[in-house]
Amino acid sequence: MILTKYKEGCPPGPARRAGLMPQAERIPTNLRTLMIVEVLGRSDGAMTATEINSALGLPKQTVHRLCTTLEAAGFLMRQGSNSKRYLPARRLRDLGAGLLFSSHSHIARHQVLLDVARQVRETVNFVVPEETGMSYLDRVETDWPFRIQLPVGTNVPFHCTASGKAYMASLPPATRRGFVAGLDLERLTARTHTSAEPLLDDLALTARRGYALDDEEFMDGMVAIAVPVVDAKGRYVASLAFHGPVQRISIEHAIARKEVLLDGARRLRDALLGT
């Protein structure tokens, strides 16, 4: 059984394949540029603007103009001085190499999450703050058939989640108080903090002990624990958390495994931040 809770964020889905996108004239210019680069990057040879456009279905003059702009900016180059065929130029190759290199960060992060999940045997999350709440950036699902599912991209409140409280506890006390004052402390369960002072007391305790708890404050029947991931200067970067149903784990059970999370946070710092 899988329980789902809270709305998912609304990031755009994977781009539809070139040539299948209706109303191509409405595609923003910056996206058109990326689509041209994508088509050329998938090709095994140089392509003319007309050949590129055969996969896109954009106005012909638009593709020619954008190819000329990309060439002038150093992202594309001609196959020869008088050729109409385009190849990736140095800036585009450098961009591709940089993106490929940066993927090691995701791989390193996910490997740490996999190891933490193996030890705690619950769903493990890497969560970052955004303007509207905490966002699940990466996760490893538990292999238990009964689990609480909060997919990548889910956006959850600050005030009643372990990851959100870990973030708020990292703020200086005065900043923390101002932050809490601006929140809508919506009641989601009977245990949700709906007034500032109890929440601030909880955050002060969280800051002292180094981990945050969600004791069925976000969802009835779910508990969670989170610790901060910090950079080399001790500044908050993200929350590392795990959660599960009360039928299988308790708050005491979660606290007993906090060292696994703390060790995972140190390893994330070392792997991702080069400390």
Can you describe this structure?
The strands form 3 sheets. The chain has a 6-stranded antiparallel sheet, with helices on both faces. It has 2 domains: 24-88, Winged helix-like DNA-binding domain superfamily/Winged helix DNA-binding domain (Arc Repressor Mutant, subunit A), CATH 1.10.10; 102-273, GAF domain (Beta-Lactamase), CATH 3.30.450. It is elongated and about 70 Å long. Helix 4 (90-120) runs antiparallel to helix 9 and helix 5 (162-169) crosses helix 7 (196-209). The two termini are 41 Å apart. With 275 residues, the protein is an alpha+beta fold. It has 9 helices and 11 strands.
Question: What are the defining features of this structure?
Answer:
Arc Repressor Mutant, subunit A, three-stranded antiparallel β-sheet, alpha+beta, six-stranded antiparallel β-sheet, disordered N terminus, 275 residues, 11 strands, Beta-Lactamase, 9 helices
Quick take:
By secondary structure, this protein is of the alpha+beta class.
Topology:
Blueprint (H helix, E strand, L loop, with lengths): L1 E3 L24 H14 L4 E2 H6 L5 H13 L3 E3 L6 E4 L1 H31 L2 E8 L2 E8 L6 E3 L5 E2 L5 H8 L3 H9 L14 H14 L2 E4 L6 E9 L5 E10 L5 H6 L1 H16 L2
Parallel strand pairs: 1-7
Antiparallel strand pairs: 2-4, 3-4, 5-6, 5-11, 6-8, 9-10, 10-11
Helix pairs in contact: 4-9, 5-7, 6-7
CATH class of the largest domain: Alpha Beta
The largest sheet is: 6 strands, antiparallel
Output the CATH topology of the largest domain. Answer: Beta-Lactamase
Side by side, the strands of the main sheet go 8-6-5-11-10-9
Low-pLDDT sequence parts: 1-24
* Radius of gyration based on Cα positions: 24 Å
